[in-house]
């Protein structure tokens, strides 16, 4: 198995598309991970796809059955939620898909809060 997506410190960037059918990709940089996940997924009828990016220990980082990020031992770092088209990658703006989806900052804050809660729970 090729391991060209792993940095020298054992970490990687994981990009996960959102939606009913999702794809994912790992790479040594977030933009390559995003481009590879988008290319595998396609851009949908509206020409855009939402992609979340995580940074974490390669051997610990994965994808769950429902398409979310999973990890063992080392919690990953949320890098961002991005709006991706064939010609651009931008931080997700509010309302890009509908008014119920978070923007990039909201997504990061939600995930950082969940990770902090997880850390407190295991420390107790």
- End-to-end separation: 39 Å
Regarding quaternary structure, what we see is single chain
Low-confidence stretches: none
Order of helices and strands: EEHEEEEEH
Q: Label the overall shape.
A: globular
Strand order of the main beta sheet, please? Answer: 2-1-3-6-7
Structure description:
With 124 residues, the chain is α+β, with helices and mostly antiparallel strands. The chain has one domain. It has two helices and seven strands, in the order ββαβββββα. It has helices at residues 30-41, 104-123, and strands at 11-17, 24-27, 49-57, 62-63, 69-70, 77-84, 89-91. The radius of gyration is 14 Å and the shape is globular.
Structure at a glance:
Helix content is 26%, strand content 28%.
Q: What would the keywords be for this entry?
A:
124 residues, alpha+beta, five-stranded antiparallel sheet, two-stranded antiparallel ribbon, 2 helices
Could you outline the blueprint of secondary structure elements for this entry?
Layout: E1 11-17, E2 24-27, H1 30-41, E3 49-57, E4 62-63, E5 69-70, E6 77-84, E7 89-91, H2 104-123
Antiparallel strand pairs: 1-2, 1-3, 3-6, 4-5, 6-7
